[in-house]
Write a structure and sequence with these properties.
Peroxisomal Thiolase, Chain A, domain 1, 340 residues, 30% helix, 24% strand, five-stranded mixed beta sheet, alpha/beta, 13 strands
Length: 340
């Protein structure tokens, strides 16, 4: 008989995935018409040529994208909303502070009165949520958990010269994963890492209150309220250093070499950061997927969207080892290494 303190012997598998994109494409040429920038400049520094952004006149928002991605993940899993036991929605662009968008999402997919929680971990939100969902299933308390990453950072952008350092980076989207308990105990989380450094919050933040939310030494600016503020150079330096370090830490915890992982599915923040990490570990291009060119930085949606695209292409399959990696505002950085 299992001890109350000993988790039951349960494996966890990815049963299905889905994603959703807004209807509207925003190209670098579009940005050239509203701000002082160029397609060449953006491509050289970020690897981005276009991104998708919501069209509010069509009713598109974080919730609609999340709903579409989750519906597709349920269909891919051959499940219904009523099969879910718990829903985690990773987002920093929830529709409002109350109610949680996760609650509305659970209702929209017919999941009934299950637990539903918004998790705000910025670009790490989905990876954090994968680790949390695994723990909930391994505890034996839940058997089927939906993890959704959805963000619409376009709503926090200035599409003019004032916002050109951030508006060129971000796109909108959503991705969803269905996790299920399985009797195959070889499947599930191998190793993980979750970190934060709140002392560096001022490198990437969205001020909401004029006399409270600006860092010391920064003049409160009404025009900056509800707009992403980023110290691009500091964030780039943080990512270039932290990204490979947290991968190495996770490999060490798992007792694996870099080549023993089949895929590194990474947050899509900047093509140069991804390339630097690939070169450091000597990975072939096919092991580190890049889709930022037509997606931009979709925050918590980027990792599940990459996963879904790789599964659709038949490149991520059962039996493989996959490491999910992310870093972002907070500052936060995290990994989740799985045996599929």
């Amino acid at each position: 008989m299992t001890s109350p303190l000993e988790p039951p012997k349960i494996g966890v598998r990815i049963a299905g995935t889905g994603m959703a994109l807004p209807s509207q494409e925003l190209t670098n040429q579009d940005l050239e018409r509203v701000m002082e920038t160029s397609d060449e400049w953006i491509l050289q520094r970020t690897g981005i040529s276009s991104r998708r952004v919501i069209d509010t006149s069509k009713g598109e928002c974080t919730l609609t994208l999340a709903r579409e991605s989750l519906a597709r993940a349920l269909e891919d899993s051959h499940l219904h909303g009523t099969d879910l036991d718990l829903l985690l929605l990773a987002t920093m662009t929830m529709e409002m502070g109350c109610p949680p968008s996760a609650c509305r999402l659970a209702s929209d997919v017919g999941a009934g009165a299950i637990g539903a929680v918004d998790i705000s971990g910025a670009c790490c939100g989905f990876v954090y949520s994968m680790n949390l969902a695994y723990g909930m299933i391994r505890s034996g308390l839940y058997r089927t958990v939906a993890v959704v990453g959805a963000d619409t950072l376009s709503t926090y952008m200035d599409y003019n010269d004032r916002g050109r350092s951030t508006a060129i980076l971000f796109g909108d989207g959503a991705g969803a994963v269905i996790l299920r308990a399985t009797d195959d105990t070889s499947r599930g989380l191998i190793a993980q890492a979750m970190h934060s450094d709140g002392s560096r919050w001022q490198d990437l933040y969205i001020p909401e209150v004029l006399d409270r939310d600006f860092p010391p030494g920064h003049e409160p600016d009404p025009a900056a309220l509800h707009r992403v503020q980023m110290n691009g150079r500091a964030v780039f330096k943080f990512a270039v250093g932290t990204f490979p370090d947290v991968i190495a830490q996770t490999l060490d915890r798992a007792g694996l070499r870099p080549d023993e992982v089949d895929h590194y599915i990474c947050h899509q923040s900047n093509a140069r950061i991804l390339e630097a990490a690939r070169e450091r570990f000597g990975l072939p291009p096919e092991k580190l997927y890049v889709n930022i060119g037509t997606r931009g930085n979709t925050v918590a949606a980027s990792v599940p969207m990459c996963l879904h695209e790789l599964r659709e292409q038949g490149r991520v399959r059962d039996g493989q080892r996959v490491m999910f990696v992310a870093f972002g505002g907070g500052l936060t950085w995290a990994t989740s290494l799985w045996q599929l």
